[in-house]
Amino acid sequence: MEREFNDTGLCVSNRHYMVDTSKKIESIFRLIEKGKYFTINRPRQFGKTTTLSLLDKLLNEKDDYTALKITFEEINLNAYKEQEFIYELFMMILTRLEFLNLEKQTLFVEDHLGKITTFPAFSRFITKFIRHMMPDKFVVLMIDEVDKSSGNQLFLTFLGMLRNKYLQSSEGQDYTFHSVILAGVHDIKTLKAKLRPDDDRKYNSPWNIASDFNVDLSFSSHEIETMLNDYSHEKNISPDIRAIAQKLYYYTSGYPWLVSKLCKLIDENIITQRKNKNWLAADVEAGFRMIADKAYSATLFDSLIKNLENNNDLYELVFQIIINGRSLDFSIDDPVINLGHLYGILVNSERGRCQIHNRIFEQRIYAYMMSKVQRTKSGNVNEYGSPEFYNVSGLDIRLVLQRFQTFMKEHYSKKDAGFLEREGRLLFLSYLRPIINGRGFDFKEPNVSDERRMDIVITYENQRYVIELKIWHGPKYHQKGLKQLSAYLDTYQLKEGYLLIYDFNKNKDYKQEQIIFEDKHIFAVWV
């Protein structure tokens, strides 16, 4: 069977190109060796199921381990009563034992199937099973998709039972699973469970025995290289693997599904039209433009937007970061920041600030927020696609900024500073998008600094334009901003740049200025 890059479900080495995650698996195994109970809570499509599968294979190949991997993916726990829930657990364990060809253990479970109807009885069954059926084995229970039951009282009772058995076993008073691993999006240690008939929810911690799980499941640039090496060897090509891996990491920050998806787009869409099948760093950029396009649909992006739509506080926080350039301290104790982290939207930057996880997410959210404002607000912009914006050398950014300045002066000069600070930059982005739509591509460069600025990179007919959006804080900060823009232009080997400055003073001057700074020509416009 010809292998491919996988973007759906479980990754399997003989069917898919995979990153070598053996060091991660070894780190997790060391937790299991110590008999730890823990939760692998990571965002959707972050490799949790594949990780459990690799652990399952590793453990069951060892003489002294047996891994029982089950999942709550296909069962509706909310429909079950205690007896039915226990029966489902029995059936899942029974299925795994049969698959592992453990005949004696299978018969033991079958003999108790349907006879165990309460949790105390189930606890005694586990004791007998571990003590008499698996005396020479370390038995590891792994449960995937625990989010399917996180609000179910039966599941919490089950966790409480495992917790009690763990504590009693530690005292030499019971026999139980050597290690238990739960996998899902949410951290089971702080489950919010609906424990009453009304809507009153309270925190419950039936899993406070769990050890911290600090293994990084994202892919490093070096780890991505292992997958590209495997692919290149099989395809008999010799691309610049290091440069491509670094570019893949640049856009994805190692988010597993995004890495695989970009590779799949390059392999199955981008290089198919040319004779030379060697990948180029430019192919990664082309893949990024495809996946970041607002018309490109994927379940992960649907979930990303749904989480923002369903949480107003989270939407506002992300809006402030992406659109208004706010630099916010990352505090995991803040419920809103914690939620953003849980969903894979926010991460802690090296400077301790809230940062969008990766450039693809930032671009998708950026496009979504602009689309939303265009749909809900009248922009009074009637020059979309004006031929005057385009010339033989490409896009006339100078004219775009001049027209936007006129637009702001005519329609928003009487707005208060609070409105302009919140909406001003979004108005420009909404103004810009129809001008380049279908002709070019605009990319918002992430920026996590103390300066409230935004860098927009536009690609149009093989030309690149960099526009920095910045709030006016006086001449001193203006010079600092020019230096930042100059350095940023160097990364794209450009000598020309553009600066859109928002001045919230009532007596501001709507001026334009051509600035020569270092070796750069910068056109600045104040609005």
Automatic annotation (TrEMBL):
SUPFAM superfamilies: P-loop containing nucleoside triphosphate hydrolases
Protein name: AAA ATPase-like domain-containing protein
